[in-house]
Design brief:
By secondary structure, the chain is mainly alpha-helical. The protein has one domain: Arp2/3 complex 21 kDa subunit ARPC3. Helix content is 73%, strand content 0%. The longest helix is centred in the last third of the chain and has 30 residues, at 150-179. It is globular. The protein starts with a helix and ends in an 11-residue tail after the last helix.
Length: 196
């Protein structure tokens, strides 16, 4: 319980709404320009890395809930559980110090992306018929054209898009962490300290 309280200190409570705004704004931009990436978990991963799995999970879940309730992207709530898992994984990787090393950040993104792909494909298939209204729909259509069923096409799309998306997101978080002063990072309890 003490660790949970530390996860939600004042700095974390200030950071979470900013992270949610970043998730929604960048995710909405990615939807608008129809890129085959999501880019909607930068804030979630940053909070998870800095403040731990619980804070990351809450940020991911609330981001998707607010995105849906605001009416900007109504399918988002169906993936709120996946977003929570992405945030929790970021907390685990942060505690291990992976986001402090570029290649480990990429590896964290790959693992997170594959996990998200496996969890998201059945939701996209059985809740939305495989069509999400995003840039990834092109990949689903291409997979369908070579004979895959809806679930297979969504798994194929996810195993391409999700790892690429999360590797890019972790690299962005890596760059943000490099830019932040050590005294700021020291205010958070989760991230294993970087040297220099």
């Amino acid at each position: 319980m003490d660790g949970l309280k530390r996860s939600f200190g004042t700095m974390t409570l200030v950071l979470i709404p900013v992270a949610i705004a970043i998730n929604i704004a960048v995710g909405q931009l990615a939807l608008f320009v129809k890129v085959p990436l999501y880019l909607d978990s930068i804030g979630t991963i940053l909070v998870g890395v800095l403040a731990g799995p619980w804070a990351g999970a809450l940020t991911g879940f609330l981001s998707n809930a607010i995105w849906t309730l605001a009416g900007w992207y109504t399918p988002a709530f169906a993936f709120a559980g996946v977003a929570a898992i992405i945030g929790a994984l970021a907390g685990v990787f942060g505690r291990a110090g992976w986001p402090n090393v570029w290649w480990k950040a990429i590896l964290a993104g790959l693992i997170t992306g594959l996990t998200a792909a496996i969890l998201s494909a059945p939701i996209a298939t059985y809740v939305f018929g495989g069509v999400m209204g995003s840039g990834t729909d092109v990949i689903v259509a291409m997979a369908r054209s070579i004979g895959l069923d809806s679930l297979g096409a969504n798994i194929a799309q996810g195993t391409f898009s999700d790892p690429m998306d999360k590797m890019a997101t972790y690299l962005i978080v890596f760059l943000v962490l490099r830019a932040l002063p050590l005294r700021f990072l020291a205010r958070f309890t989760n991230l294993k300290a970087r040297s220099g």
